[in-house]
Amino acid sequence: MTTPRPESLPFPESLCHRCAAPPRYVETRTSVFIMCPLLPGKYPPQPVRACALFRPAEAGAK
Ligand code: SF4
Q1: CA atoms of 50 and 62, how far apart (whole Å)
Q2: Which branch of life, at top level (predicted)?
Q3: What is the pLDDT of residues 1-28, one digit of tens each?
Q4: 48: CA distance to ligand 1 center in Å?
Q5: Does the pTM of the predicted model rise above 0.90?
Q6: Where residue 58 falls among pLDDT bands split at 50, 70, 90?
Protein backbone atom coordinates (compact mmCIF):
# COMPACT_ATOMS: atom_id res chain seq x y z
CA MET A 1 0.00 0.00 0.00
CA THR A 2 1.37 3.41 -0.96
CA THR A 3 0.45 6.59 0.87
CA PRO A 4 1.57 10.19 0.39
CA ARG A 5 3.16 10.70 3.78
CA PRO A 6 2.61 8.63 6.90
CA GLU A 7 2.51 10.45 10.20
CA SER A 8 5.54 8.64 11.49
CA LEU A 9 8.37 8.69 8.96
CA PRO A 10 11.32 6.33 9.17
CA PHE A 11 14.81 7.82 9.13
CA PRO A 12 13.75 11.45 9.63
CA GLU A 13 17.29 12.55 8.78
CA SER A 14 17.06 11.00 5.30
CA LEU A 15 17.49 13.34 2.33
CA CYS A 16 14.59 11.57 0.63
CA HIS A 17 11.99 13.35 2.77
CA ARG A 18 13.09 16.67 1.32
CA CYS A 19 13.50 15.44 -2.25
CA ALA A 20 11.44 16.50 -5.23
CA ALA A 21 11.66 13.01 -6.77
CA PRO A 22 9.24 12.53 -4.91
CA PRO A 23 9.70 9.46 -2.74
CA ARG A 24 6.78 7.16 -2.02
CA TYR A 25 6.04 5.76 1.37
CA VAL A 26 5.15 2.11 1.36
CA GLU A 27 3.50 0.95 4.54
CA THR A 28 3.36 -2.57 5.79
CA ARG A 29 1.80 -3.65 9.05
CA THR A 30 5.04 -3.12 10.91
CA SER A 31 7.20 -0.77 8.85
CA VAL A 32 7.30 2.15 6.45
CA PHE A 33 9.66 1.88 3.51
CA ILE A 34 10.88 4.78 1.40
CA MET A 35 10.63 4.02 -2.31
CA CYS A 36 12.54 6.20 -4.75
CA PRO A 37 10.97 6.59 -8.22
CA LEU A 38 14.31 7.53 -9.78
CA LEU A 39 16.69 4.81 -8.65
CA PRO A 40 16.66 1.47 -10.49
CA GLY A 41 16.88 -0.29 -7.15
CA LYS A 42 13.85 1.63 -5.79
CA TYR A 43 14.87 1.15 -2.17
CA PRO A 44 18.14 2.93 -1.34
CA PRO A 45 19.84 1.99 1.91
CA GLN A 46 18.49 4.35 4.55
CA PRO A 47 19.17 6.86 5.80
CA VAL A 48 20.24 8.50 2.53
CA ARG A 49 22.75 11.22 3.42
CA ALA A 50 24.01 12.00 -0.07
CA CYS A 51 22.37 11.34 -3.42
CA ALA A 52 23.39 12.43 -6.92
CA LEU A 53 19.74 12.58 -7.96
CA PHE A 54 18.56 14.68 -5.03
CA ARG A 55 16.69 17.86 -5.89
CA PRO A 56 15.13 19.90 -3.10
CA ALA A 57 11.35 19.78 -2.99
CA GLU A 58 9.57 23.11 -3.38
CA ALA A 59 8.59 24.71 -0.11
CA GLY A 60 5.02 23.81 0.64
CA ALA A 61 4.93 21.02 -1.92
CA LYS A 62 3.86 17.57 -0.81
S1 SF4 B 1 16.52 10.79 -5.68
FE2 SF4 B 1 17.83 10.27 -3.94
S3 SF4 B 1 17.21 11.68 -2.31
FE4 SF4 B 1 15.59 11.68 -3.86
S5 SF4 B 1 14.10 10.12 -3.17
FE6 SF4 B 1 15.55 9.12 -4.55
S7 SF4 B 1 17.15 8.25 -3.24
FE8 SF4 B 1 16.03 9.78 -2.04
Answers
A1: 21
A2: Bacteria
A3: 565 576 788 999 999 999 999 999 999 9
A4: 8
A5: no
A6: confident
